[in-house]
Design brief:
Layout lengths: L12 E4 L4 E5 L6 E4 L5 E2 L9 E2 L24 H6 L6 H8 L9 E7 L8 E2 L2 E2 L14 E9 L5 E2 L5 H9 L9 E7 L12 H7 L1 H17 L4 E5 L14 H21 L6 E6 L3 H4 L4 H4 L5 E4 L26 H10 L7 E6 L1 E7 L11 E4 L11 E3 H7 L5 E4 L4 E6 L2 E5 L2 H13 L4 E5 L8 H10 L3
Parallel strand pairs: 6-9, 6-22, 9-11, 11-12, 12-13, 13-14, 14-15, 15-22
Antiparallel strand pairs: 1-2, 2-3, 4-5, 7-8, 9-10, 16-17, 16-18, 16-21, 19-20, 20-21
Helix pairs in contact: 4-5, 5-6, 11-12
């Protein structure tokens, strides 16, 4: 058995020391301590999921009882365990202390996708094509330009042929919204998926010299286009399926630390201070590979990707934006994991999706949540991707009488023949907005502007969180 202060001899997972305290073990002897907040309790000796749940919920892989994996000794008392928690270094104190302890207005962050310009179809009279000219800058506070990339020299570069025209157009929209912030988002899913580029983040972040090259290039790119900051979208550190390696866990922390130091140094020389944000995972299998408790001090906020929780890669239908779930894969589980890691609630932007995930049912007569599927749904008229449709494409496809509310996940699903989709509507977005307000989160992040017809849902959610 291990001592309650370390993970010696324990495999990866969350280990409850008692009903409030736990250790997150992930390949390091010391582990990361955590504490369940509010009325949640630590129920399992060991679990792969968020260990803190409501007392009436059960975890599917619960092994033994709290404390069973640790030696029983006076050293395992709650008071002594808490004193062993990782303390912030001096740089954290300096960075965090600059944040005023007052009520902070909720941010509305949205991603702009530079490939939406290639949609040439229309649906119900609505033109699918979307460019910078279509943006209404008055409905958001922050626009993340998706995506810019970098090459094997770790130098940033534009990806689309007209990025050098589109980025200045968006920056110029500050004339209509003086408070607008525009950031360049680096990476994205495809960058971290294609064989030609998926190893670049891991290779760059491993060594101090290459991190420095990347950081310098990113800051130069931001200054070239008069941007307000950089958003790091590495999907995902230490995920071997997408070019990751175990070393990424520490490398990611060092990258953010050194990026923060470079930003602070530049600001000390009289330049405006750049923002530094990340797009962060919501799945427990990816959260466990990053040192949230260590790096949150270095970033201005987290864009939490609380969507794609389920999709056509699963053999059965499920909610891709589940607010709650019993399998440990939900909005609430993700938010709780970050809060338990010490992230200030105001640094979390809750991700909301203007699209749905779709399946092709094995039997068109079996169309409930959890029904068997043969694969992804057919592609949409506008988005053109199997298993991924904008909300307005779903609205045009699914009869109203076939749209159902799932009370467990607090999300919607709908079907037509053998086509099945998980998505949100105003009704379920309100559940998420209420949750955001209750948890005192910093705001909302949307993926993405082009998928919200006439910005109906963006405006609605913004109006709700402004009342928090």
């Amino acid at each position: 058995m291990a001592n309650a202060h370390n993970c010696e001899g324990l495999s990866n997972g969350f280990y409850c020391i008692d009903n409030k305290n736990y250790l997150w073990c992930y390949g390091r002897t010391e582990g990361t301590p955590g504490k369940c907040i509010g009325e949640t309790v630590c129920k399992c000796g060991r679990t792969q999921y968020n260990p803190c749940v409501w007392n009436f919920l059960d975890l599917p892989d619960c092994e033994k009882k709290p404390g069973d994996f640790f030696e029983k000794s006076p050293d395992s008392s709650e008071s002594k365990h808490e004193s062993s928690e990782i303390k912030p270094d001096s740089s954290e104190s300096k960075h965090e202390s600059s944040e005023p302890e007052v009520s902070i207005p909720k941010k509305t962050v949205a991603y702009y996708t530079n490939w939406a310009q290639y949609r040439f179809n229309s649906i119900d009279g609505w033109t699918c094509k979307y460019t910078a000219d279509n943006i209404d800058p008055t409905i958001v506070d922050v626009i993340n330009y998706a995506f810019v990339v970098f090459d094997s020299t770790y130098t940033l570069k534009e990806y689309e042929w007209n990025d050098d025209q589109m980025i200045p157009k968006i920056v110029a929209m500050k004339s209509r919204n003086p408070n607008l912030k525009v950031l360049a988002s680096i990476g994205g899913w495809n960058f971290n998926f294609y064989d030609s580029t998926k190893h670049l983040y891991s290779q760059m972040a491993e060594k101090q010299a290459t991190r420095a090259t990347f950081i310098k290039s990113a800051m130069s790119f931001a200054r070239k286009y008069n941007l307000d900051g950089i958003d790091i979208d590495w999907e995902y550190p230490a995920n071997e399926d997408q070019g990751g390696r175990p070393v990424d866990t520490q490398s990611f922390t060092l990258l953010l630390k050194e990026f923060r130091e470079a930003i602070d140094k530049e600001a000390g020389n009289g330049k405006s201070k750049l923002l530094l944000t990340i797009a962060a995972p919501a799945g427990p299998w990816n959260i466990k590979n990053i040192e949230v408790s260590k790096f949150h001090q270095y970033i201005d906020w987290i864009n939490l990707m609380t969507y794609d929780l389920h999709g056509s890669w699963d053999a059965v239908t499920g909610s891709h934006t589940a607010l709650y779930a019993t399998d440990g894969i939900s909005v609430d589980d993700a938010v709780t994991a970050y809060l338990n890691a010490g992230v200030p609630s105001t640094k979390i932007m809750l991700g909301m999706a203007h699209y749905g995930r779709g399946w092709t049912l094995k039997s068109s007569s079996d169309h409930e949540m959890g029904s068997a599927a043969t694969g992804a749904s057919k592609s949409g008229t506008c988005t053109g991707e199997n298993g991924y449709l904008s909300k307005y494409e779903i609205d045009a496809l699914i009869p109203q009488e076939n749209i159902k509310f799932d009370s467990k996940s607090k999300t919607m699903y709908g079907y037509k023949n053998d086509q099945w989709f998980s998505f949100d509507t105003k009704e379920t977005f309100k559940y998420k907005a209420d949750y955001l307000c209750k948890k005192k989160l910093g705001g909302v992040m949307f993926w993405s502007l082009d998928l919200d017809k006439n910005y109906v849902n963006t405006k609605y959610i913004k109006s709700l969180i402004e009342k928090c």
